[in-house]
Give the backbone structure.
Amino acid sequence: MDTLRTPDDRFESLPGFPFTPHYADVSDGEGGELRVHYVDEGPSGAPPVLLMHGEPSWSFLYRKMIPILVDAGLRAVAPDLVGFGRSDKPARRTDYTYQRHVDWMTHWLGAVDLHDATLVGQDWGGLIGLRLVAEDPDRFTRVVAANTFLPTGDRHPGDAFLAWQRFSQETPDFTVGRIVNGGCTSDLSPDIVAAYDAPFPDESYKEGARQFPMLVPTSPDDPAAGPNRQAWEVLRQWTKPFLCAFSDQDPITKGADQALRAQIPGCEGQPHTVISGGGHFLQEDRGEQLADVVVDFVGATSR
């Protein structure tokens, strides 16, 4: 598998992101290896919070939350999905499949040996993260779902998502920083927009970002539909704490929290919240508030 690796100097002096990079190698599925980057802050023995980003962001998205989690005595672990951030980027769009993303992160979980983790998954961080929970539930103690879902293709994906899917394939310049900005209710400053562009020196680095929208199951016979249905069978038996913390201004995932709450037993009795004023990337718009929700949830369910 041919891969690209973003030069380190692209990540120098990023605003609000002073964290030391960590790396783990995972199998690429073709006999080679991929280097996966992750942030790992806080005491190694503290309860881990796995912060999983989505499309087309990277671990920079969690920079406002990480200090709050660490100050609360937690360990904040934020990987970059393959194709994003400081992680390696397979060069061909066909290298990226839903199953491969799950496999890559499964191998990464084993390499860093996380246990008793709290998953915080947003966007594709939930689509992949919930698969990880279903496939190895003993690694996880609780889940926070933020603007995400686990689709099986059995329901219409919504006009907003289909428009985004078309845009991702048709636009000649996939401007990552502007896309993230467009998914926020706040207007990001130029240096923040540039930080989201940093992993992608040119269009050749964006094959994973362009492919992600096409990997969401939108029909019942999608290759990922069956595995996601199997994951749902596990989630419908999940009795550990499960919290929905969605924002109120995300047209892509609006209403998905209600579907999660209706089907996952661990949602019962939890203080689900709708965070006011946040867009799709609520970590940008209301990151401190989401971090407080996570801290309170871990504290309340650890007693």
Q: What stands out?
A: The domain at 3-300 is CATH 3.40.50.1820 (Rossmann fold). The radius of gyration is 18 Å.
